[in-house]
Write a structure and sequence with these properties.
Radius of gyration: 13 Å
Helix content: under 10%
Number of domains: 1
Number of helices: 1
Number of strands: 7
Strand content: 35-45%
CATH class: Mainly Beta
Oligomer: single chain
Distance between the termini: 39 Å
Shape: globular
CATH architecture: Roll
Order of helices and strands: HEEEEEEE
Largest sheet: 5 strands, antiparallel
Structural class: mainly beta
Length: 100
């Protein structure tokens, strides 16, 4: 069963918006792809296990939770590394640039 997560809005880091007009980019996730989303200010990486095209939702396992300072966490809020989650396409986000 997947854990229901209220993902943060990706804002200007939205993958969907960034590639909406790029005909050369296929945004469809595939098994084994690593996607990123935002949750409570952290970047969450998800290893895709399946994609439901009719819902535009990826299902996968959380493989990393990274806070704004670049620290890796085992959990954040009700989300833990290893959880199986659903990630709608409109919540996918680009990786943030590393802070110097």
């Amino acid at each position: 069963m997947h854990r229901h997560i209220e993902w943060d809005e990706p804002g200007s880091a939205s993958v969907t918006q960034l590639y909406a007009k790029d005909a050369n980019f296929d945004p469809t996730p595939h098994t084994g792809d690593i996607l990123t989303a935002r949750y409570q200010g952290c970047s969450v990486r998800i290893d895709v296990r399946s994609y439901r095209e009719d819902d535009a939702v990826s299902i996968g396992d959380v493989v990393a939770i990274i806070d704004a300072q670049g620290q890796r966490l085992d959990s954040r809020g009700k989300l833990q590394k290893g959880d199986t989650v659903r990630l709608p396409d409109d919540k996918r986000a680009m990786e943030p640039a590393p802070e110097e």
